[in-house]
């Protein structure tokens, strides 16, 4: 066996000669030596052939050897792994011709994707089923998997069309470029009604794979295959901070969240529902839902207390956030209270949780708080007392003032027999405000139903109603999308 090794770069600016060496090897050497041996021998011989190159002092230096890679022009193949055995690169060939090329001239590894299957999944929030497409992504020697729903494909498609305009449409319909023999790749349409049949899902899987392949191999626009939207979709980078750049907020990964927050902190949600969007427009807020972090059981993981259509419920914190992020929300932020916490505060909050857990949810209850300033609350109390008295005194003129007072005291005593928390219906924001009042962190004469989810955002009304010495921190975005490339496996 004989290796013919040439060099297509110069060792120095004064070196203008081409270098080529021949390295004969026996059968034992072929089975025992790595490719790095060929590189080392070839570079040493080339330097001896060109003593004026000025690099003779680097003979055998590992940093110089690592700076070059081997390329086979006949195979159009790069051999970048120096540990590969020589028998693996020249099976059955008596002569192997290689070129030594600087590694920075190597073409970058290409992304390759395959949708190798589908999976039926159940929604934890919406009580429905959906299909998840399982994508295998390969980059060089790295391979990982991501799962995406059709609506995530559709969202990516809409973002790319908005970003690139006509250039993006041209990238998918350019007949001069054909990948896998397909000149035109169409994005599969939506199906509005009914469940998808298995053959429809399979056709959609093929179309989505062709769509991704075209995105990665389209020559125009030249930056399309490296667009951060596509890289995020394939699990290579996270765009959480980029998507909320206009807000100017910080970000924290979901895996580190439970170590950075504590009970009493609040979570704000921006959901995709039509009613949620209308609520945000009506209130002028960026958020439409709020929950509060509560202690775990017996010192366990933190939990989330919230009021939804299911009523007042307690959920595991991290699992609940991941479910929200996967199914219904566009953004989730956390705001932490800068206040001293002690066991008594935790017991107080847990007592409140036990008193409201299972209560009913009421969106209409929030309207009871409209226009309830401190002054309005006092005026309404006076008005209610006057109206109540008239209701009893007017039709019964023969009642004495004393009998009216007795009737009032009887009604009041009946009301105090019931727990005010147990009989109350809550909206999400009134629930959180009530919890903060129980903790003593919220100090206001306003009714808890006065506050909307937007009251808890930065510079909102909650900050102006906090107890002296209590501070609410800034909004920190929770990055819930995993970067799947971190789970990649490596192939030799």
From TrEMBL:
Entries under InterPro entries matching the protein: Papain-like_cys_pep_sf (IPR038765), PX_dom (IPR001683), PX_dom_sf (IPR036871)
The PX domain, residue ranges: 111-241
An example Gene Ontology molecular-function term: phosphatidylinositol binding
Xref: Pfam families: PX
PANTHER family hit by this protein: PX DOMAIN-CONTAINING PROTEIN
Protein name per the record: Ribonuclease H2 subunit A putative
Origin species: Albugo laibachii Nc14
Gene: AlNc14C123G6738
């Amino acid at each position: 066996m004989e290796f013919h090794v040439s060099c297509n770069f110069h060792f120095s600016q004064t070196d203008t000669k081409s270098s080529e060496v021949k390295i004969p090897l026996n059968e034992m050497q072929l089975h025992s030596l790595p490719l790095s041996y060929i590189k080392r021998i070839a570079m040493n011989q080339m330097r001896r052939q060109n003593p004026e190159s000025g690099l003779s002092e680097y003979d055998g230096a590992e940093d110089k050897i690592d700076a070059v890679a081997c390329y086979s022009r006949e195979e159009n193949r790069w051999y970048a792994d120096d540990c590969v055995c020589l028998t693996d690169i020249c099976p059955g060939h008596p002569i192997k011709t290689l070129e030594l090329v600087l590694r920075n001239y190597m073409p970058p590894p290409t992304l390759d994707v395959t949708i190798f299957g589908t999976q039926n999944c159940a929604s934890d929030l919406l009580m429905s089923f959906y299909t998840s497409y399982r994508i295998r992504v390969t980059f060089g020697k790295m391979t990982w998997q991501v799962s995406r729903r059709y609506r995530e494909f559709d969202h990516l498609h809409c973002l790319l069309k908005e970003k690139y305009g006509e250039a993006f449409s041209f990238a998918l319909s350019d007949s001069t470029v054909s990948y896998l023999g397909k000149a035109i790749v169409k994005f599969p349409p939506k199906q509005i009604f009914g469940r998808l049949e298995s053959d429809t899902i399979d056709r959609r899987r093929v179309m989505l794979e062709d769509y991704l392949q075209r995105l990665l191999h389209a020559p125009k626009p030249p930056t399309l295959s490296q667009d951060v939207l596509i890289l995020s979709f394939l699990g290579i980078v996270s765009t959480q901070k980029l998507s909320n750049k206009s807000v100017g907020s910080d970000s924290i990964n979901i895996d580190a969240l439970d170590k950075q927050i504590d009970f009493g902190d609040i979570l704000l949600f921006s959901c995709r529902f039509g009613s949620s969007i209308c609520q945000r427009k009506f209130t002028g807020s960026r958020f439409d839902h709020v929950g509060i972090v509560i202690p775990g059981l017996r010192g366990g993981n933190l939990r989330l207390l919230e009021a939804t259509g299911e009523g007042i419920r307690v959920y595991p914190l991290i699992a609940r956030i991941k479910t929200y992020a996967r199914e219904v929300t566009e953004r989730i932020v956390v705001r932490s209270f800068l206040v001293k916490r002690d066991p008594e505060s935790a017991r107080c909050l847990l007592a409140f949780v036990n008193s409201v857990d299972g209560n009913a949810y009421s969106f209409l209850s929030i309207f009871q708080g409209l226009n309830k300033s401190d002054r309005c609350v006092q005026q309404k109390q006076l008005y209610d007392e006057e109206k109540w008295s008239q209701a009893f005194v007017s039709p019964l003129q023969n009642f004495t003032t004393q009998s009216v007072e007795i009737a009032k005291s009887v009604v009041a005593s009946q009301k105090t027999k019931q727990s005010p928390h147990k009989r109350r219906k809550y909206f999400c924001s009134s629930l959180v405000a009530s919890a903060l009042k129980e903790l003593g962190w919220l100090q206001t004469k306003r009714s808890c139903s006065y506050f909307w989810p937007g009251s808890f955002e930065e510079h909102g009304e909650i900050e102006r109603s906090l107890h002296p010495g209590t501070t609410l921190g800034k909004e920190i975005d929770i990055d819930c999308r995993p970067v799947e490339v971190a789970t990649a496996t490596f192939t030799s």
